[in-house]
């Protein structure tokens, strides 16, 4: 689908990209990673001809891109840029509609597409379509950037640090969303990141670059288990076994957890906790509120009195989080089990440190 053959880009004496050969098959996610200035953005921009290579060839769908008009080429390539790059004076809806407008889609089709894409990236069309970029958080703006790149349903997506400018929790959600969207849409994607955990989680293949050159191109598993050079070894770091946890979703580890509703009686709570040390507390809709310790139960007259409130956003995991995320939550909070919630923060179950340990041991074998 995308093939780079010995591609070089020079700026005077600077060699930004140096004899790069790389192939990405249809429906695959290739993640480009490497130190700042190693040529990642330059590589993406050469693929959609925002800049021209000094030498070498780039093929998209078997066609030499230098023979394809840039406008035509870009119709099949969605591009989400490093700094989001939304037009500040246009609404979210108009921003997303940029390429469909260029393609002269009719108004109803464009409106339908905008609504579809906002829903896809998890933002309510009614609330967001009319907003301006300055009214969006960093994470929301990045999601609009991704929606815009997807607008004309291009088979190829180039994404330059699409989740770079957001807090870890939002990034985790965006990554989970990306995985879900990609499972459904099966685009051919080249995604740039600085975040190795992100690369491990999202990539079918990781391309590690250094000083304009490709130093390893392998699956995340192979990159972690068999680094091709000392540079890659140092780059992936000493916690490779832990990094592999980024490939494992918590989903298959979720088990049911002792749970009490906030207005249950102390007796009911004791029964629910059983021999455990504590139980999660939920409201009558099942949404996670906090937890209560068995030892506290005897000293209080209601659950709400003895409950420790949880800001579920900070502590709970989404069901499609990774074990790596689970572990960092456990270490950060000093909890041996972490609650897992769905999109409505309803408690689904929990994941325990024992699960993470077992998975780590397996990954080390
Ligand atoms: N227009 C330009 N003129 C001169 N040099 C440039 C130009 N664009 C990029 N470079 C140089 O080419 C090299 C590669 O830049 P590039 O933007 O591709 O890096 P990158 O890997 O995307 O870095 P980052 O991770 O910081 O975004 C850098 O040394 C940069 O200074
Ligand atoms: Mg860059």
Please state the average pLDDT score: 89
Q: Major sheet: order of its strands? A: 6-7-8-3-9-10
SS-based class:
alpha/beta
Strand residue percentage: 15-25%
Rounded to an integer in angstroms, the radius of gyration calculated over CA atoms is 24 Å
Unique ligands: adenosine-5'-triphosphate, magnesium ion
Distance between the termini: 35 Å
Q: CATH homologous superfamily of the largest domain? A: P-loop containing nucleotide triphosphate hydrolases
Judging by the overall fold, what is the CATH architecture of the largest domain? 3-Layer(aba) Sandwich
CATH topology of the largest domain: Rossmann fold
Helical content (DSSP H or I, runs of 4+): 25-40%
Put simply, the count of helices is 18
Count of individual beta strands: 17
Question: In a nutshell, what does this entry contain?
Answer:
This protein is an alpha/beta fold and 365 residues long. The protein has helices spanning 40-47, 70-75, 92-96, 98-102, 107-120, 125-128, 138-150, 168-185, 196-202, 220-225, 230-236, 240-243, 266-273, 294-297, 303-306, 312-315, 323-333, 353-364, and strands spanning 2-11, 14-24, 29-33, 55-60, 63-64, 77-80, 156-160, 188-193, 205-210, 213-218, 259-261, 278-282, 288-293, 308-309, 317-318, 337-341, 347-352. The protein folds into two domains: 2-237, Rossmann fold (3-Layer(aba) Sandwich), CATH 3.40.50.300; 250-364, CBS-domain, CATH 3.10.580.
Description:
- The protein has two domains: about 1-235, P-loop containing nucleotide triphosphate hydrolases (Rossmann fold), CATH 3.40.50.300; about 250-365, CBS-domain (Roll), CATH 3.10.580.10.
- The model has no long low-confidence stretch (mean pLDDT about 90).
- The longest helix has 18 residues, at about 170-185.
- The protein has helices spanning about 40-45, 70-75, 90-95, 100, 105-120, 125-130, 140-150, 170-185, 195-200, 220-225, 230-235, 240-245, 265-275, 295, 305, 310-315, 325-335, 355-365; strands at about 1-10, 15-25, 30-35, 55-60, 65, 75-80, 155-160, 190-195, 205-210, 215-220, 260, 280, 290-295, 310, 315-320, 335-340, 345-350.
- The chain is α/β, with parallel strands linked by helices and about 375 residues long.
- A six-stranded mixed sheet has the order 6-7-8-3-9-10, with helices on both faces. Strands 2-1-4-5 form a four-stranded antiparallel sheet, with helices on one face.
- The chain is built from 18 helices and 17 strands.
- Helix 5 (about 105-120) crosses helix 7.
- Bound molecules: adenosine-5'-triphosphate and magnesium ion.
């Amino acid at each position: 689908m995308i093939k780079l053959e010995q591609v070089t880009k020079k700026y005077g004496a600077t060699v930004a990209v140096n004899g790069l050969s790389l192939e990405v098959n249809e429906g695959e996610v290739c993640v480009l990673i490497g130190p700042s200035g190693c040529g990642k953005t330059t590589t993406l921009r050469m693929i959609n001809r925002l800049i021209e290579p000094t030498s070498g060839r780039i093929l998209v769908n078997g066609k030499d891109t230098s023979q394809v008009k840039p406008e035509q080429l870009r119709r099949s390539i969605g591009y989400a840029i490093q700094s989001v790059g939304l037009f500040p004076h246009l609404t979210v809806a108009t921003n997303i509609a940029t390429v469909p407008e260029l393609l002269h889609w009719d108004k109803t089709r464009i409106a339908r597409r905008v609504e579809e894409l906002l829903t896809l990236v998890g933002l309510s069309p009614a609330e967001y379509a009319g907003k301006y970029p300055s009214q969006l958080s960093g994470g929301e703006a990045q999601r609009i950037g991704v929606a815009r790149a997807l607008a004309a349903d291009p088979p190829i997506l180039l994404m330059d640090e699409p989740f770079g400018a957001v807090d870890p929790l939002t990034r985790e959600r965006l990554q989970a969303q990306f995985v879900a969207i990609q499972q459904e849409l099966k685009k051919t994607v080249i995604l740039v990141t600085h975040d190795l955990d992100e690369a491990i989680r999202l990539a079918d293949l990781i391309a590690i670059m250094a000083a304009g050159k490709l130093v390893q191109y392998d699956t995340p598993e192979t990159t972690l288990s068999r680094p091709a050079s000392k540079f890659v070894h140092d780059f992936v770091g000493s916690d490779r076994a832990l990094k592999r946890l980024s490939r494992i979703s918590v989903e298959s580890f979720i088990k049911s957890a002792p749970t009490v509703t906030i207005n249950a009686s102390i007796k009911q709570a004791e029964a629910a906790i059983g021999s455990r040390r504590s139980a999660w507390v939920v409201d009558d809709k099942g949404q996670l509120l906090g937890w209560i310790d068995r030892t506290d139960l005897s000293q209080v007259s209601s659950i709400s009195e003895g409950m420790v409130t949880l800001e579920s956003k900070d502590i709970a995991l989404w069901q499609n989080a990774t074990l790596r995320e689970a572990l960092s939550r456990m270490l950060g909070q000093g909890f041996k089990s972490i609650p897992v919630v769905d999109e409505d923060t309803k408690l689904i179950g929990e994941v325990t440190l024992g699960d993470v340990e077992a998975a780590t041991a397996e990954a080390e074998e």
